[in-house]
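User: Structure please.
Assistant: Input sequence and predicted structure:
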Amino acid sequence: MHRLVVLLNRQQLELLDRTIARGLAPDRAALLKLALREHAQRAQPQPAQPREPRT
């Protein structure tokens, strides 16, 4: 298992806690894992679009 240390300020921790209270995740670790997975999915390279031939 890998371990990741994330340093957050008080405001960021409060935001995490409010999000958890809304039921998006059971705890901070699960919420951070969810955020990293969602970010990784959006960051996947998109296939190149075919270009029109130049005339």
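Residues 28-42 form the longest helix (15 residues).
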